[in-house]
UniProtKB/TrEMBL annotation:
It comes from the Eukaryota. The lineage of its organism: Eukaryota, Metazoa, Ecdysozoa, Arthropoda, Chelicerata. Coiled coil: none annotated. One of its GO terms (molecular function) is serine-type endopeptidase inhibitor activity. Residues 1-15 form the signal peptide. The keyword Signal applies. InterPro entries: Kunitz_BPTI_sf. This is Putative conserved secreted protein. The keyword Signal applies.
Length: 164
């Protein structure tokens, strides 16, 4: 029993460290523009829909990214792309299953499938899959060009590494 409790204490501590610093789960609040602030378009992670969405805001305490690709790169493990593949049986009265696409997180590619599910890691077209899961088909992250980044969030500079 003591081992069981110890396991959950360690798990809880680890989870708190991971989620606390995660930019994808930052504060999200609407802000009013003050004199001198102007509304600009940014991207933020929508936790409910598990996707990056475009917002227009006066930068307040929201976690925002300048581009959709930066948002997808930072939050890719929280998106639909990294959810398990939608697998369901078709009801006998349903229509024939349609070819669909899903993101295979092992190969990091969009792959075709035939399923009846209407939720989860499922896309109508390969293009939709690749737009939502940009790392599928564009190469390994180590082969991408160096990202110069943007201004430090929360005024805490951090060291970043890249592959040459």
């Amino acid at each position: 029993m003591k081992l069981y409790i110890l396991f959950f204490c360690i798990l809880e501590a680890f989870a708190a460290d991971v989620w606390e610093g995660d930019l994808c789960f930052g504060k999200s609040s609407s802000s009013t523009c003050t004199a001198g602030n102007r509304r600009t378009q940014h991207w933020t992670f929508d936790i409910v829909n598990q996707t990056c969405v475009n917002i227009t805001t006066c930068l307040s305490d929201q976690t925002v990214f300048p581009t959709k690709l930066e948002c997808q790169a930072a939050c890719k493990y929280h998106t639909l792309c990294y959810q398990p593949r939608a697998v369901t049986g078709c009801a006998p009265q349903s229509k024939m299953p349609k070819p669909t696409w899903y993101f295979n997180r092992d190969t990091e590619q969009c792959e075709q499938d035939i399923i009846c599910a209407n939720v989860g890691n499922k896309f109508a077209t390969k293009r939709e899959c690749r737009n939502e899961c940009p790392y599928g088909g564009i190469g390994h992250p180590c082969h991408l060009k160096k990202d110069e980044g943007h201004a430090c969030k929360r005024s805490k500079p951090s060291t970043r590494w890249y592959w040459e």
